[in-house]
Design a protein that fits this description.
Elements lengths: L16 H12 L2 E3 L6 E3 L1 H20 L3 E2 L5 E3 H5 L2 H7 L4 E10 L5 E13 L4 H11 L8 E10 L13 E11 L2 H22 L5 E4 L11 E8 L5 E11 L1 H6 L2 E3 L5 E3 L1 E8 L1 H10 L16 E5 L7 H16 L2 E2 L2 E2 L2 E3 L6 H10 L3 E5 L1 H5 L2 E6 L7 E5 H6 L1 H22 L1 E3 L3 H7 L14 E4 L5 H11 L2 E6 L7 E2 L6 E2 L4 E4 L3
Parallel strand pairs: 3-7, 15-18, 15-19, 22-23
Antiparallel strand pairs: 1-2, 4-6, 5-6, 7-8, 8-14, 9-10, 9-24, 10-11, 11-14, 12-13, 16-17, 19-20, 20-21, 23-27, 24-27, 25-26
Helix pairs in contact: 2-6
């Protein structure tokens, strides 16, 4: 860093938010663009984050009785055709396999050969292929409920891609369940949404609004789509997770039937629910600053990095012994069910070493030199605070209090994000004010706008689509905790009695 450089990332958030996002990912060494159009390579630092996230979610799933399985990557095209709304919703995003081998042409160039009798779809989601399996597995009410999850990759042929947020291939989990009654399936839909809310708020430190999608925004083929919506630092909404009540639509399409206790044949009631590597993009855009990513401790690949300062070779043994002993003490602490994760970086690369860990978002950095050892102390920096805001602490006090310190950082990140969301959420009842709220003052910075508008809506899709056409603003959700108050539709002025909904620009 030169004296002119005040931040590690250029451009800053205020200068160019989309480019800032890409530079934060690059600086943290989490991922990179793949040679394959629209795809990404998740590097070890980024994948470690996904592993922590997926382990925590997997434990929460299994606590509700869910079991993991795996289903084929390829889906016969006629499977998608069974559910009309489903195929209509995904048709434009499907990648299609039409050949099964390669041959060399007369010029020695590899070309597709061996045309398939029936094209195969690379899964955009797995309701149909899993439904086919469920139809074979289920015969009686005694076989229910079936509670299945798979961790997998999916492909959706996106036109505009951005690492973690929207890529042609991404990692996710998708849960699929079958129940004997409608109420059981609805209960499961909301249960899994609450799991996602817990992950977002308690692990990722991202405050979310829970609610139901409108008819125009819900999952193709679902009767009810529930969601968690979060506000990013550019005030756009991010749909961070969804849970769908599918009714009997997919059961009828896949012929999932069972013999009831009353000895009548009935169709099952199904759900599906999922989150993806998009959560990593959400974490980056919620907490990161102009020096790089900022990781909440509960999900961070590393909690503490120790930075031994060895200016003379005859100090090495003493400094390293002090550092390794401290690392052992820290690792003996139990932080929310696992050992405190510690790295020791003994590379002698000067100030670049400290900057590297700042950009990688590690919650706590600890410098250890001969003067610290003389005082039985450590020099501690928190990633949620200014990089110059460092303090000397007693070594034992630091080690004993590390879990409390990590929780303090976790909570501070959540409260900061919640405060930001509250600052940029406004009740709006006037149409002109509504339009101004979402209209950028600077035409060169179209991403800058008000945030979340809580306004009344008459329930008509025509009004919803008119707003989307005019402002590129959608109803993100109909919040579950809204007050049932009367008002007038923000678009047409007709009576609206169901309470305010959340309007926002979204990713």
């Amino acid at each position: 860093m030169t004296k002119k450089d005040e931040t590690a990332i250029s451009p800053t958030r205020a200068q160019n938010y989309p480019e800032w996002y890409q530079q934060v990912i690059r600086a943290s060494d989490m991922a990179e663009i793949s040679p394959v159009r629209g795809c990404m390579v998740i590097k070890p630092w980024g994948y470690a984050l996904w592993e922590n996230l997926s382990r925590a979610l997997d434990d929460m799933f299994k606590a509700t009785g869910v079991k993991n399985a795996y289903f084929p990557l390829f889906i016969p095209i006629d499977f998608l055709e069974k559910e009309a709304r489903h195929v209509e919703g995904f048709a434009k995003e499907c990648a299609v396999v039409t050949h099964h081998k390669l041959e060399k042409d007369e010029n020695g160039k590899l070309v597709p050969a061996g045309k398939l009798n029936e094209p195969l779809i690379v899964r955009p989601t797995s309701e149909t292929i899993i439904g086919d399996a469920f139809a074979r597995w289920i015969r009686s009410y005694r076989d229910l409920p079936v509670l299945i999850n798979q961790w997998a990759n999916v492909v959706r042929w996106e036109m505009r891609t951005r690492i973690f947020l929207r890529t042609s291939e991404f990692l996710w989990q998708e849960g699929h369940t079958v129940h004997a009654t409608k109420q059981e399936a609805i209960d499961r839909t909301f249960m899994m949404l609450n799991v996602y809310k817990k992950m977002a708020e308690q692990y990722l430190a991202i405050p979310v609004i829970t609610g139901e999608k409108t008819e125009a925004e819900k999952f193709p083929g679902a009767e009810i789509t529930t969601c968690i919506e979060a506000m990013m630092q550019d005030r756009r909404a991010l749909q961070a997770g969804t849970s769908h009540f599918l009714g009997q639509n997919f059961a009828k399409a896949s012929d999932i039937r069972f013999q009831s206790a009353e000895e009548t044949e009935q169709y099952g009631w199904t759900t599906s629910w999922g989150v993806s590597t998009r959560l990593i993009g959400g974490l980056i855009m919620t907490h990161s600053d102009d020096n790089g990513v900022v990781f909440p401790p509960r999900i961070s690949p590393t909690h503490v990095v120790l930075l031994p300062i060895i200016k003379r070779e005859d100090h090495r043994e003493t400094v390293m012994k002090y550092s390794t002993d401290l690392a052992e003490k820290l690792r003996s602490q139990n932080y929310h069910g696992s050992a405190v994760r510690v790295e020791i970086d003994e590379r002698n690369i000067g100030g670049a070493r400290n900057w590297e860990w700042i950009k990688k978002g590690v919650p706590v950095r600890v410098e250890i030199g001969p003067k610290d050892i003389e005082k039985q102390a450590v020099y501690v920096s928190r990633r949620d605070r200014d990089r110059k805001d460092s303090v000397s602490m007693d070594r034992q006090e630091f080690a004993d209090g590390i879990c409390d310190l990590l929780d303090e950082i976790q909570n501070s990140l959540y409260e900061k994000a919640l405060d930001y969301q509250n600052q940029h959420t406004r009740d709006i009842d006037d149409k002109d004010e509504f339009d101004a709220f979402f209209t950028p003052e600077n035409k060169e910075r179209p991403e800058i706008h008000g945030g979340f508008a809580r306004s009344h809506w008459c329930g008509k899709t025509e009004c919803e689509l008119a707003i989307k056409e005019r402002l590129n603003v959608t109803i993100r959700c109909i919040p579950f905790d809204r007050e049932k108050q009367d008002g007038k539709c923000i678009e047409c002025g007709a009576p609206a009695k169901s309470g305010r909904v959340i309007f926002a620009k979204a990713y």
